[in-house]
Design brief:
Elements: E1 4-5, E2 38-41, E3 43-46, E4 51-59, E5 67-73, E6 79-86, E7 99-105, E8 127-133, E9 144-153, E10 160-171, E11 186-190, E12 206-209, E13 211-214, E14 219-227, E15 235-241, E16 247-248, E17 255-257, E18 270-276, E19 298-304, E20 315-324, E21 331-342, E22 348-349, E23 356-360, E24 377-380, E25 382-386, E26 390-398, E27 406-412, E28 418-419, E29 426-428, E30 441-447, E31 469-475, E32 486-495, E33 502-513, E34 519-520, E35 527-532, E36 558-560, E37 568-571, E38 588-591, E39 599-601, E40 645-646, E41 649-650, E42 660-661, E43 672-673, E44 692-693, E45 699-700, E46 711-712, H1 727-738, H2 754-766, E47 771-772
Parallel strand pairs: 1-10, 3-11, 13-23, 25-35
Antiparallel strand pairs: 2-4, 4-9, 5-8, 5-10, 6-9, 7-8, 10-11, 12-14, 14-20, 15-19, 15-21, 16-20, 17-20, 18-19, 21-22, 21-23, 24-26, 26-32, 27-31, 27-33, 28-32, 29-32, 30-31, 33-34, 33-35, 36-39, 37-38, 40-41, 42-43, 44-45, 46-47
Helix pairs in contact: 1-2
Length: about 775
Amino acid sequence: MPGSRRLPGRGTGTALVTSLLWGGLLAAFPAAIVAQPSIDAGAGAGAPGSSAFIAVTLTSNGATVVATANDLHFDDALLQPVGCTINPAIGDGSALKKTLVTGSLCTDGSVSCVSDDDCPAPNRCDVLRVGVFSIFNVDVIPDGLLFTCEFSIAADASPATLGIGNTAEAADAQGNDLLDVGGADGSLTITGAVTPTPTPPGGTPAVDVGFVSAAAGESAAVPVTLSKNGAAVVATANDIHFDNAVLSLDLPNACTINPVIGAGTTPNKSLFAETLCSDGATSCSTDTDCVNPNRCDVLRVAIVGLTNTRTIPDGILYTCQFAVAAAAPSGTQVLRNSAGTSDSLGNDLVTTGSAGGILIGAAFPTPTPTPLPVPPAVDVGSVSAVAGEIAAVPVTLSKNGAMVAATANDIQFDNAVLSVATPDACAINPAIGAGTTANKSLFAQTLCSDATVSCSSDLDCVGSNWCNVLRVAIVGLSNTAVIPDGMLYTCQFAVAANAASGMRVLSNSPGASDPLGNDLATNGSNGSILISTVPSPTVRLSTATPTSTTTATHGPVATATPSYTALVVATASNTAGPATATPTNTASATDTATASATGTATATETPTVTPTASASASPTPTSTVTPEPDGSACTAGTECLSGFCVDAVCCGSAACGARQRCDVFGAAGACSEQLPGGKQCRRDSDCESSACVPGTPSRCANVIRPTPTPTTRPCVGDCDGDGTVAVPELVGLLRVALGAAPRTPCQTAGPVRIEQLLTAIDNAESRCGALLTAR
């Protein structure tokens, strides 16, 4: 028709959140036996500058429908969604307890938006996504009205009929998507004349103050609840009048918003409270702040969204703690109530509200509060690993009934000991990955400590930040299906070879979002890696010859019992004591090594000594340990080629100087500078050597110090320089002392004294030529 415009309808954009409807595999249900429900958008009308309402209805056609979802496509140049209201007959206050959630998306249905600026061209912010479901039950939704959405019409709009495209989906009680859900498109007619502001469907909202009981001197927790009765309530405010001679409040902590509608939830509301004088015009803290006859006896509480106009669900708004005076008389203290509400355009709504009360001095039955839902949790696991190996750390999801379509968490770790090689270090659980019902993808990157800058090493970070945060996200690029409980992914952390034993905490900052992209309050436990050091190297045994015990009697028996795992050749031999035994034969046994192998060798001998003479020797296996090169793990210097075991590694030096260790990662085996706290260097000026060596981790270059020049201790009496004092040299020195031979420069520079003769004799006995380290 002339002036008519039609927007994209079914078949355009992305199919609506199957995860909002618990996901599911429809292939398990033959299409022939599955009824085809229809979710239809209606027609509305309004003048420029006013609003119009579009009703959406369900016709199940015999199908079991427990949740629905629609994408409503509209012309965002002329229309803007104001809000949607669920049919009270199926909402929070009904037996079905269904919930309505909404969100704006770009044309292709894949990106959340607030305006066209949030969408990549040629997309526009022109899709309203609406879901009706319950996280508490799978009760069937009856045929009829599901919800009504209000659209504001541009003031400069010309008369026309605009199409409201409709893409519909539904799910059954098992969470299966229902096939071929029908759905008629809607329409919105812009009339030529300004019409009065339409009255939204539904009744009058009510903000009610509750009744409780308390004893004198105690506190009374008074709840305040909202019943929208179909109205689109986005904010509330009420004045509670009380007798301040009996009751008092400790603001600002006296009143607490219901966590279900507070910060981080879908409504994302805030609470503001103050006390006023009786006339409600002046703020006060005591009666002295008020003009007679006014008293400070009014509590004003507002529930508003500072950054949104989302509808508040029915239920508890907040609770206030009133302190009852110790001398309060028994009876009922009435809490008079003046209530108000407003819609998403800021229009005041006609509102009712019942008074509450506190019954003092007698029991007053109060309903058992319904436990609030437990937030979802993304938990990091705890594992153990040996230094130099890989630790596979699992991360799991527990939804606790929440609709979780995506997760993200930051894992902070000690990068002096642990490292990750993104993007290959983390792997998604195949059960939720590509090709599955969930069909999610994993994205991982490392960030600096402040989690704002991507990095590959500490050199990419500024100030006191390290490259020690691993961020991992599990999202669906083409869907918003709900993720099942269980394993999300596993990340491989490489443990440094020189890592000290002990627990390394993996600090966890988790997050999750629902199918509409709303952030969910999320819990999450930290993980850990318990590191143990590399065990001491296995002793390498060469061929060992144990000496067996033999008794030199008639028919001696020799037994060899090797107890180590190696190829051992045991030879029975006789070691005679005072007597002389001459065995005529030698028995040998060859044992192939297995743990606790026992070899027995029997030797029959014909001794030529007195039969009572015996000789015995205990079997003593001798082994040869192959020394390890510098940098190898050790517990003693005998295990090292250098002979030095420093900081649990074979080292080229007997000891390291200040700020140095021999086990610095990347330079193990040589004394290298280590910064305080085991941190890595970022710049040359951090190091004593003025050289920071890049790497993972980075380290300071070795300080080059001059090698000490050895000096030879004078060896008195050694004239030929061979390092020994021979007898002829001693005789020559003695002849000089007696004056029977001329003095030579090598023997002495002056008269030979008795001390020199004694020193020369000592050198002859112990050798000489030892080196002294230059100081």
